[in-house]
Amino acid sequence: MSVIKEYLAQLDKFLSNVPFKLLTNVQSENRGDAALYVKGEIIFADKSELHFKEYFIAIPALKRLAYSYHYQAHDKKLIFRYDNAEHYTEIETYPHHKHIQNEVLPSKNVDITEVINEIVRSFAK
After folding, report:
1. Sheet with strand 21-31: strands edge to edge
2. How far is residue 55's CA from residue 84's CA, in Å, rounded to a whole number?
3. Are 31 and 20 in contact (CB under 8 A)?
4. 60: helix, strand or coil
5. What is the pTM assigned to this prediction?
6. Could you give the CA distance from residue 5 to residue 40 in angstroms, rounded to a whole number?
7. Phi-psi bin for 47: left (phi > 0), alpha (psi -120 to 50), beta?
8. Among residues 52, 6, 66, which one has the least CA distance to residue 30?
9. Residue closest to 53 by CA, chosen among 82, 77, 91, 95
């Protein structure tokens, strides 16, 4: 199995077990086993939404080049967004950062499982 197909299978398995979710919509573009673009949204029980995008290259191994995980309330107001857009060069974790309302904070390089787990933990509070 290619690394792209393996990643998509792992993502599908993870997403199928996410609690508090009402709807999942994931689309992927496999570009000849050399690159992968994944985007989607998850609607949670409180009608909050996670919109995500990931872009990978797969040669010689799967490497995520770009990501955005945008989590918003039911009224479309930003709760948080993680991304690695190459701005905010003053942030110590550049290019990785987290937006919370009007703040931009340092962030480690997160993946979709960490972001979803953060959201799910907020439901348990």
Report:
1. 21-31, 35-44, 49-57, 63-72, 78-83, 97-100, 103-106
2. 11
3. no
4. coil
5. 0.94
6. 17
7. left
8. 6
9. 82
Q: Is 81 exposed, middle or buried (0-12, 13-18, 19+ CB in 10 A)?
A: buried
Distance from C-alpha of 26 to C-alpha of 65, rounded to nearest angstrom: 19
Q: Is 88 left (phi over 0), alpha (psi -120 to 50) or beta?
A: left
Please give the Cα distance from 105 to 77 (Å, whole number): 18
Structure tokens at 28: 């992927």
The residue written with tokens 């987290």 in the block is 98
pLDDT in tens, 18-69: 999 999 999 999 888 899 999 999 999 999 999 999 999 998 899 999 999 9
Using left for φ > 0, alpha for ψ between -120 and 50, and beta otherwise, residue 9 falls in alpha
Q: Produce one character per residue of 1-37: b if its CB has 16 or more CB atoms within 10 Å, e if not.
A: eebbeebbeebeeebeebeebeeeeeebebeeeebbe
